[in-house]
């Protein structure tokens, strides 16, 4: 078999896997939407849920229950897509499969800034939440990058991961130190701190959704540059890619997506780690396919985590952030073990 034939077969194989990945992600998103609308304290069959969404004049108890779940479903899709794409962008920028908004401290920075605003500034409006979350996420990302750049070799993947993990732990301690003495603030925002989509509000989503939309477009446009940078900086420059501005653009898009998602639903971790890593096994390192697939996969995974959290207990809900952590922690262990073995 000639080399050309082998290359054609590999290309066809990658195209098939990419098609399968997108089909699977689309099916998961559809399944998650149906489950989110139909399942809960009062279960509704899918056809009834569909009729309730399409015909607002239906006033049955089942229809009312379904329509009350619509904001929560939309919020899950919005935040999950933002976190999935943010994780994929950060992994592409740092060239590190361990990169994730939670592990790199970005989620923690956004959460700390919002908690400071709640406890000391009395913030209430969506714009205030968004502004503080973006500032906190950006400062945390910059701090982790600076710390990870210290020493020989500059900002290596391992150093960034270690700096991010240490920063995340420190930020979480600061959040607890601020909240614990203030029972009024702790009571109001306990669920937000855990991370969940149960408190969906249209006014907040309408303010923050355009910001997420712009960051999504910018992130997707950076895909060709990320593909070039994956070959190495010298190779990327040889292909005519201005590495510095594009790396900054993709990083800013990831930070904005993470900060906006945290402002809406709290610091939900592991979505940005699990989704890109799993999809990379199917579509490869091609960011033109990986980024939009991560967008879909993140939306589906967070929404399914929320549904599981509703059903896992009879008397109370388990927040989506906790369910996502149960899913993501084993994946993190597998990635760390594989990276260590490769390093050896």
UniProtKB/TrEMBL annotation:
Keyword annotations: Cell membrane, Membrane, Transmembrane, Transmembrane helix, Transport
Listed transmembrane segments: 20-41, 73-90, 102-122, 129-148, 160-180, 206-226, 246-279, 291-312, 318-336
Recorded topology in the membrane: Multi-pass membrane protein
Main location: membrane
Record InterPro entries: ABC_BtuC-like, ABC_transptr_permease_BtuC
Compartment(s): Cell membrane
Superkingdom as given in the UniProt entry: Bacteria
PANTHER family listed in its UniProt record: FE(3+) DICITRATE TRANSPORT SYSTEM PERMEASE PROTEIN FECC-RELATED, FERRIC ENTEROBACTIN TRANSPORT SYSTEM PERMEASE PROTEIN
Family to which the UniProt record says this protein belongs: Belongs to the binding-protein-dependent transport system permease family. FecCD subfamily.
Name the UniProt record assigns to this protein: Iron ABC transporter permease
Naturally occurring in which organism (per UniProt): Agrococcus versicolor
Lineage of producing organism: Bacteria, Bacillati, Actinomycetota, Actinomycetes, Micrococcales
């Amino acid at each position: 078999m000639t080399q050309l034939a082998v290359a054609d077969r590999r290309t066809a194989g990658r195209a098939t896997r990419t098609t399968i990945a997108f089909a699977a992600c689309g099916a998961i998103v559809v399944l998650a939407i149906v489950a989110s609308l139909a399942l809960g304290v009062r279960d509704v069959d899918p056809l009834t849920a569909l009729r309730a969404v399409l015909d607002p004049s239906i006033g049955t108890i089942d229809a009312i229950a379904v329509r009350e779940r619509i904001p929560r479903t939309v919020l899950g899709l919005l935040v999950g897509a933002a976190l999935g794409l943010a994780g994929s962008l950060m992994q592409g920028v740092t060239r590190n499969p361990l990169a994730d908004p939670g592990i790199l401290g970005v989620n923690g920075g956004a959460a700390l800034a919002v908690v400071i605003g709640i406890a000391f500034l009395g913030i209430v409006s969506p714009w205030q939440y968004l502004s503080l979350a973006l500032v906190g996420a950006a400062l945390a990302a910059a701090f982790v990058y600076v710390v990870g750049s210290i020493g020989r070799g500059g900002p290596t993947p391992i150093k960034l991961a270690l700096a991010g993990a240490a920063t995340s732990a420190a930020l979480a301690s600061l959040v607890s130190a601020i909240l614990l003495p203030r029972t009024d603030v702790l009571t109001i925002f306990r669920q937000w701190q855990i991370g969940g989509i149960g408190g969906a509000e249209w006014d907040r989503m309408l303010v923050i959704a355009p910001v997420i939309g712009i960051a999504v477009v910018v992130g997707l446009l950076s895909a060709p540059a990320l593909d070039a940078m994956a070959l190495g900086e010298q190779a990327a420059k040889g292909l005519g890619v201005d590495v510095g501005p594009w790396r900054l653009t993709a990083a800013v898009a990831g930070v904005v997506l993470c900060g906006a998602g945290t402002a809406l639903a709290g610091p939900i971790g592991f979505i940005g780690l699990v989704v890109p890593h799993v999809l990379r096994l199917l579509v490869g390192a091609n960011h033109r396919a990986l980024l939009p697939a991560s967008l879909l996969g993140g939306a589906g995974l967070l929404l399914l985590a929320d549904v599981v959290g509703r059903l896992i207990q009879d008397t109370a809900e388990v927040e989506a952030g906790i369910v996502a952590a149960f899913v993501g922690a084993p994946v993190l262990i597998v990635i760390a073990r594989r990276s260590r073995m490769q390093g050896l």
